[in-house]
Amino acid sequence: MTTAEKHEFPMARTCPFAPPPAYEEIREGEPVSRVRLPDGGWAWVVSRHEDVRTVLNDRRFSADRQHPDFPALVKGEAASRRPDEERMLIAMDAPEHGPARKAVLGEFTVRRLEALRPRIQEIVDGQIDALLGGPRPGDLVDSLSLPVPSLVICEMLGVPYADHEFFQEHTVKVIKQSTPPEERWAAMVAIQGYMADLIAEKEKNPPDDLLGRQIVKLRADGTYRRTALAGMGLLLLVAGHETTANMISLSTVAFLRNPEQLAMIKADPGKTLNAVEEMLRYFTIIDVATARLCVEDMEVGGQLIRAGEGVLTLGYSANRDPRAFENPDELDIERGARHHVAFGFGPHQCLGQNLARMELQIVFDTLFGRVPTLEPAMDVDELPFKDDANIYGLYQLPVTW
Amino acid sequence: MKIIADTDRCVGAGQCVLTEPALFDQSEDDATIIVLNETPEGELIEKAREAVHVCPSQALSLEE
């Protein structure tokens, strides 16, 4: 039985392509152990693949981020909680969560997304045209990684792309760990206000976009509320924005560092989707976002976790667990990585995951097909990796060709 | 062999459809699983096993 905390959270990385070394130490030594949190409190970390899946798929662990006892990953964050505020989808538990998620999920079926493929291809081609027509070196983040997912989610939701700088600026504040809590809250309120205004406008004559269709559908069900839809819209906008962008940048670097892996997808684009899964596993960019609050005693990996205690599921550790992935630190697009937990696991698993898969697949096939001489314009180790953000990635990626 | 799908557990991730569209589809309304063929044979048996393995909500099982 553990009583003291050996580690402080978050733990530092030493290599931009690997989890903090402490993850392995925890996973192999004491796979469910206590860590000290930035605000002085403590929480359990769960580090093995099987245990992470258990926690994320069990009702005894709550996702209610507004709860006063939910583990705070950022110093001072707990003080900015609003327990009376309406919860966004990511903070809901059963039985409230299921119906709220299913109301929007029909927009994200594999079949529905497949119909968007030609338009996403067009968007990717347009951005690569712009990159190739611009100065050399160019910044891949600005020209491709950010605009592609941003344009796609804006079009899907029916959000004017002209406003993307506004919510981009605020999103960055929400995601950055160093943003003071009050400023983070103000940024959230600003984007939420923007979304509520946009939806109010759509209510008058609901257009044929995701938000418009949701208004019609929820009105028909008798469950329509503007604030709830604004929360959903905001979540989709923010989630569809930063995450895919970072995966595009990081994976591009990983492909360029591993030319034999890149050669495989160029020779056979049928392998690109497997490569996407492997990149998701390899980087696990949302490593610290999956926390839970235990609401009923439960044993996990031989350790009793009590109601009221916080749990952090280390997705990045799970995705490098040798029990689930052979030679986990190697990038191998042919390994069969589909059981990774990069999108989370259980009822809260990323609902935009198949959109992300498709965007990444199209970007990799198109970018490396059209720009075969692409290379980083600076030393890879010197690149500005996002060590200070809740979502890992790159601030810039100068490339030449 | 028979495929058992727990639609209450299903989170609509579509991993089964990506694995084998001949066996699985999703409801247009809420994206939950529709099993198109409950008793796969031949090569489809392996696909059914993979779908069980990758299901992110453990909503799928096989009755051997």
Structural class of chain A: alpha+beta
Low-confidence stretches of chain B: none
Number of DSSP strand runs of chain A: 11
CATH topology of chain B: Alpha-Beta Plaits
The rough form of chain A would be described as: globular
N-to-C order of helices and strands of chain A: EHEEHEHHHEHHHHHHHHEEEEHHEE
- Kindly report the name of the CATH homologous superfamily of chain A: Cytochrome P450
Give the biggest sheet of chain A: 6 strands, mixed
Strand order of the largest sheet of chain A: 1-2-3-9-6-4
Could you list the spans of chain A in which at least 5 consecutive residues all have pLDDT below 50?
A: none
Number of strands of chain B: 4
Mean pLDDT of chain B: 95
Mean pLDDT of chain A: 93
Protein name (chain A): Cytochrome P450
Family (chain A): Belongs to the cytochrome P450 family.
Keywords (chain A): Heme, Iron, Metal-binding, Monooxygenase, Oxidoreductase
GO molecular function (chain A): heme binding; iron ion binding; monooxygenase activity; oxidoreductase activity, acting on paired donors, with incorporation or reduction of molecular oxygen
Distinctive features:
heterodimer; A: 401 residues; alpha+beta; Cytochrome p450; 6-stranded mixed sheet; 3-stranded antiparallel sheet; B: Alpha-Beta Plaits; two-stranded antiparallel ribbon; 4 strands; 27% helix
